[in-house]
Design goal:
The complex is a heterodimer of chains A (about 900) and B (about 80). Chain A is α+β, with helices and mostly antiparallel strands and about 900 residues long. Chain A has 27 helices and 23 strands. Chain A folds into five domains: about 1-70, no CATH class; about 75-125 and about 370-510, no CATH class; about 130-360, no CATH class; about 515-555 and about 765-903, no CATH class; about 570-755, no CATH class. Mean pLDDT of chain A is about 90; it is low at about 510-515. Chain B has a single domain (about 5-85), classed as Arc Repressor Mutant, subunit A. The model of chain B has no long low-confidence stretch (mean pLDDT about 85). The chains are: A alpha+beta (about 900), B alpha+beta (about 80). The interface of A and B includes residues 13, 24 and 60 of A.
Chain lengths: ~900, ~80
Amino acid sequence: MGWLSELGRRLWMLWHGRQFDADLEEEIRLHLELREQDQMQAGLPPTEARHRALRQFGNEMSLREKSHMEWGWQWLEHLLQDVNYGLRAMLRSPGITLVALLSLALGIGANTAIFSLIDAVMLRSLPVKEPARLVLVGDGSDCCVSDYFPNQILYSYPFYREMQKKNQVFSDFAAVFSMMSRVHGSVEGRTEAEPLNVQLVSGTYFSTLGVQAYAGRTLTDEDDRIPDGNPVAVVSYRWWTRSLARDPSVLNRKVKIGSTIYTIVGVGPQEFFGTKVGESPDLWISLSMQKELPPYFDGYGNNLIESLYLIGRLKSAVNMTEATANANLVYQQILHGFPDAPLNQENLEKLKATRIELTRMATGLSELRTHFSEPLKILLVIVALVLLIACANIANLLLARSTARARELAVRQALGAGRARLIRQLLTESLVLALAGGAMGLAFEAGASHLLLRLASIGADPLALDVSMNARLFFFALGVTVVTALLFGTIPAFCATKVQLTESLKEGRGITGAGAKSSLARSLVVTQIAFSMLLLVGAGLFLHSLVNLTSVDAGFNREHVLRLQTDATSLGYKEGVRLTQLYQQVEERVRALPGVRAASYSLFTFNEGSWNNPVSVEGYVSADSHRDVHHNVVGIDYFAVMGIPLSAGRGFRPQDTATSPKVAVISETMARTMFPPGSPVGHRYSRGSDKDIEVIGVVGDVKVNSLQEAPQPVDYYPYPQQAQMLNDFEVRYSGSLDAVISAVRKGIHDVDPHLPISNVTTLNEQVGRSIADQRLVAQLSTFFGLLAVFLSCIGIYGVMSYVVTKRTNEIGIRMALGAQRTGVLWIVLREILMLAATGVAIGVPIALAADRLVSNMLFGLKPGDPITLVCATSVLLVVATIAGYLPARRASRVDPIVALRYE
Amino acid sequence: MHGYEIANAIQRTSDDVLQVEEGSLYPALQRMLIKGWVRAHWGVTPGNRRARYYQLTAAGRTQLEVELSQFERVIGAITRVIQMA
């Protein structure tokens, strides 16, 4: 422990530094005086005695310094000096400092903001016990409910139970419904229903994750044993806060959803949001209750309805390879063992070839990741480039300032300051600047990340992501700041201290090294322009691609359509006549409203997932017969509301009822690829157990899930003939949207005053959200592209001003010898154009190469889109000329007499 | 002893053979303070002046023994070499 008490003494000294110095001084004074007295007693005269005492003692000053330095704190004292000096230097040129600080704050803030999203979406581990040991069975790439055989992504509840029993590699095993149920329910004692996000999970879910309840208990396997038997719920901390105001007696409260009353048995921990990044369930309810919870899934006892993700916790000695082998073995056993498995020859072969994979899920499940991984990476590169451009600017500013400070530095070196010491001082100044910028950047980041979150939201709700400050983010920002300081500080510091002393100390402006410095400044500007070119081309491509996307013909008319969702299921309506009547009454009531042209319920509109499986056409087989058909269930007015043109046959009529022959309208692609040549009207087909569906009409193709997709086979059924919960309600309107919204709300509530209405928006908005990722990249890359150009302009302006000042003599001489003002103007402008052209020339090949990397983010564009290249080049050249014009004009106004006299 | 006394003591005991720069005593004392080999406290001299008195600590005594034994080994070695010559 010797070193510890030694450190203690050193710190003590640091704290009492002044006292130590005073003590030492007093001690030495005493020494000298005593020695002097002794000498006088020995008979020397006073002056001689004093001199001898001093001689014998040695160099007092240097010994005192040496004693002081023994304590080893001079590095800190120097650092404090440098910081102090750096702060004063910053305040001395407030203009430069402000520009530098702002660009740094913007650069560092933008980097941190983008990184905060990357962190939240891609990097952060789930807040559960040992997340690294959690694996997902399958890859989680599909969702919802399926009856595909053999499914390797979604699994049935009986499969979950079998696998839980049979596997030998997981210590805990859980199932979670592959989608969240967005329902409405009311807290007991309240009349108003509120939207609730319910996640169905197995009773083992919380114990597998190792998550303890904040209050009460979590779900247990017992809760999940009896179908419909145990209506209990664990609520999230957020919902407890939001809806119950952290009521301490939460465990006595109940929530009614549909016709079931759930008892709240626990509150989840504050940081726990489930296992899907970007979602945050309000309630967790056991899978055994699925038939009671809207929309009343019925998969609890069914071997072949697959709707679950399975999550296992690896036993401690088991690795992924062993786990995968065992999981596959068990998978085959279970599917072969189901008595009702459709094990015909074809399916047996499919099953034999099926391998399931295990996916690590330390960072949770996420659809966001598939949407945003690439855009976020691209954006991070973009903001990093912007920061580099800002760094180049600051380096230039510092270079210019170091020229102004050349004499100061020369004097310091002449007085004995070492070069390393000076470089350290200059770097400290840069670091002070960068840290100040970084601190401002963090303040900026807080706002920016929330803005980003809103821009990135695909659904109606903002993404439930935590982008608040955390240790990882802080160290990222700090790291960026330090790297930034080194980037912009190093070169100027080395250049500034490489001074020929005598030259610098002489009067006059002919400072050596200026030539090298301005060529360095020029290459920095060229780099800036090259980077700006890269960013502009990127922005141009993303914008062009976005324009292409928005002008895609979706097959429906997205203007003037209001869409909302009603949630009849939460009121306890079940599939059947009552529900059909409700839909019809709402449609009828709303259709009669002024400003409404048509109104219809439907299962889907656009980008809301799909219900798809293959169909078989009677007496005809084509190459496309095996294709999945997307099914939609709609009201009579649907095609009128959506503006989908009818190209053959008829649409639905009130006469198409539950008892009349089954009918369908099909899309042109389906008609062309799956039916015999000629009109398909009158042909029949079957879908699973639904036989004898007659085609009564053909409508135009529509986009189902994305604007990028190729034409899909789609068929439509009238809702009286298809037992389905419909939530989507669409209204084609004319006139003011706001007026229509309130009228429609009132109309719906006239039919049923309790019917919950949610997600009120327009079709246009909904289509827009489907390209939120492209829009995000296009908007931000444009913003940062322009910012980059702006920063480069500052760079050009700064460097050209500097060059012009340096060349004042030369210009003066030229003008004295008869050069015209326009000639001088041209000399300077030519140089600017040369710089810009060089930058562009370097930037173009880089941009073309980078193009290939983002090509799968682009829609309807070939890489190397010439329009974009030409636009970016001309923007840069024009803007560079404007930035350089002011210094050039100043050069042309140089008065030769003044310029020459100055020397 | 305070600094001046130490300097004098060195001079006297060595019969004025060791005449170092007196001031270099002070950085050395600081070094020993840091290491914890000596303790310092302020006292009053017989001449009624304030002075810093230094005192060897236990750690300092141990260190002294280490240094002494090392020194003796070196001296012994040198002596032997010289005697052989």
